[in-house]
Amino acid sequence: MPLHLTKIAFRSESPATLRAWLESHAEEARLTTRYLPKRVEELADGSLFWIHGHQLVGRSPLLGFQETGQGRYWIRLEPRLIPVRALPKRAHQGWRYLEDKDAPPDLGSGEANDLDAMPTRLLGELSKLGLL
Question: What Pfam family is a match for this entry (predicted)?
Answer without folding.
Answer: DUF1489
